Amino acid sequence: MTAQNSAEMTVEERYALVRSIGEECIQENELLNLIAKKPNVRCYDGFEPSGRMHIAQGVFKAVNVNKCTQSGCEFVFWVADWFALMNDKMSGELEKIHIVGQYMIEVWKAAEMNMERVIFLWSSAEITRNANAYWKTVLDIARKNTIARIKKCCTIMGKQEGTLTAAQVLYPLMQCADIFFLKADICQLGLDQRKVNMLAREYCDLIGRKLKPVILSHHMLCGLKEGQPKMSKSDPDSAIFMEDTREDVERKICHAYCPRSRQTKAEVSEDGAPVPDEDKNPVLDYYQHVIYSRPGAKITMGGTTYKTYEELEEAFIEGAITEASLKDTLAVELNSLLEPVRQHFAHDPHAAELLEKVKSFRKGDASTLLKEGAPLEQSATPLAVVWLPAVIQMPVDVAIAISDAIKAFLEQHSNGEVVLLLPEWTAFSCGEVTGEEKNINAALELNLALLQSHYLKKDGVRVVRQSQLILDNPNDYWVAAINAGRRNLLQSLGDACGEFKSAGHLVAALMYVADVAMLRATHVISVSHERGYHEIVTKFFEGRVTVIPAREGNVPPLHRPEGSVASADDVLFLGDTDMDVCRKIKRAYCAPNEAENPVVSIAAWLLRERGALTMERAAENGGNVTYTDEALLRNDAHSGALHPADLKAAVTKPLLESCAASKAVLASPEYKKLSQTLRQAAKKLPKK
């Protein structure tokens, strides 16, 4: 069969050629529609540079790519160097991974892959160039899926759940994002990639996208030994490799398992992994999927020519072909396919150099510790980072805790600096403030302005947007996040942070580490809801980063101490109006004869801040009294000398004074608009 130009082929011929690649197609009608209607169909496969290259990845892949391009498709190879880093290949060294990737491209060239419509894109370079679009897609996929759903995809790395690192959970999120980032119409990968490809189709449903990627999954060659449903790079005799010598091929095929049994379509598990089958004949498997996968292939044995695989299998089952003849002929055919590759690496200086380097990588000690990158370069002067909470309304208590911690840090470190980080991307990943970027930005900008107008010391405080921190150096940022993931088992992160609501919350945990690394921080100011994340930071940096807990509880919730927040009236917020404050304090729990309740706590805080707190009351009720000692105030509240009504009146007055700052902020057109945006966002939040 002579290769036709796609322009000379009918739609049915082009479809049949592309469809012949896949052992499974989801969905066939969608594939036919693509071939018929789209001028430039884009196929995609990703490969992880990881050392040895077996014949299925070499010759079989070259044949499949040629079928795609012959039918008019464009084929994009995603050189997954970052994925190899996450999967701890080549000791986690990106430079070595790049060399292996270049070696694999040379193999395909030598294996007669038609490169005319083939594109190789390196993930690290492309992702860095398009960091905003790529990582936003990753984060969106993460926040829309549970950890349990993503873990189902992790067999694409051959990892069991109990040994999964956080980085290996990040892997399928990125692989799913690749499909959309590359604008792939067809995912042309192995059956073992089924679950992550299905994740992409499910994501289309979640975002309301009608045009889904077609999944065209090719066959997985079985191992050469009995009971090996798939090849293993860790067992050199389980497969033919592209660098095998003539003698290697002959020896391996000679010893291959070869039962004289009729072959059936391989069963696969739910995740696409082949199921062990004692009747599976790897010699026949190689004939069917390597030798006969080439258009027009035919085999002659004992004077008989077999034009189809089915004819060959039938002859072997019936005894017309001996096992020795079957194996000898296969060895000859495989060596003829590999000979151009051998010659290329023997005579091309660049290819030969790459091969020698790849071989040298394998000689390294397998027990070598993973390269974790250079140690953290910390700021020469004390530098603390604090994350501004992404919330529609910031509680006064949190604002005070953050501001007090910043003030204390700067007083203790005269040459220090505090970075107040606006975590737009972390909030997006966690779906905070409805998860919409407009609402997240509105919340951060408005709460920053309110915080600065009330309590925040501006001198020594630098405001940094997380988006800018990431996009200024996306490569280093995400390598830091990936390294944090490599260092932590998924289970250990769950132990520190509690159950993750979504995969997005897991990614957020890794981003905390990357934030600290990129800012070169020496200290972290931590509010209570972040303590688990900051435990991970401390562990990753081996104690070189000091966590400063922000002291909360100055302005506690206004309900009974044993109760829980039931409504917005239980919490004082920075943006509260005069009416809000008066209503909330009036309703606040404040029983007589108690030294500890919400209103007493607020009074004690105001006393500490101002140095004194005056209770204004009629002469017949004891007259005005000014407290300068917190213990005395609490004693009088406990004894009944201080009436709850007088206490509430005393705290209401200074709280109303602080409302003036909020009014000034909210009066400006800019912040009034942000406030309106957040009111609309609040309506979208689920009712508690």
CATH architecture of the largest domain: 3-Layer(aba) Sandwich
Largest beta-sheet details: 6 strands, mixed
Please report the distance between the alpha carbons of the first and last residues. 68 Å
- Tally of alpha and pi helices: 28
Coarse shape: elongated
Mean pLDDT: 90
Radius of gyration: 33 Å
Major sheet: arrangement of strands:
1-6-5-2-3-4
Total domains: 3
CATH homologous superfamily descriptor of the largest domain: HUPs
Structural class: alpha/beta
Family: Belongs to the class-I aminoacyl-tRNA synthetase family.
GO molecular function: ATP binding; tyrosine-tRNA ligase activity
Keywords: Aminoacyl-tRNA synthetase, ATP-binding, Ligase, Nucleotide-binding, Protein biosynthesis
Function: Catalyzes the attachment of tyrosine to tRNA(Tyr) in a two-step reaction: tyrosine is first activated by ATP to form Tyr-AMP and then transferred to the acceptor end of tRNA(Tyr).
Describe the structure.
- The protein folds into three domains: 362 residues, 3-Layer(aba) Sandwich (Rossmann fold), CATH 3.40.50; 167 residues, 3-Layer(aba) Sandwich (Rossmann fold); 108 residues, Tyrosyl-Transfer RNA Synthetase, CATH 1.10.240.10.
- Helix 5 packs across helix 14.
- The chain starts with 10 loop residues before the first helix and ends with a helix.
- A six-stranded mixed sheet has the order 1-6-5-2-3-4. A five-stranded parallel sheet has the order 11-10-9-12-13, with helices on both faces.
- The relative contact order is 0.09.
- With 688 residues, the protein is α/β, with parallel strands linked by helices.
- The protein is elongated and about 125 Å long.
- It is 51% helix and 9% strand.
- Pfam families: tRNA-synt_1b.
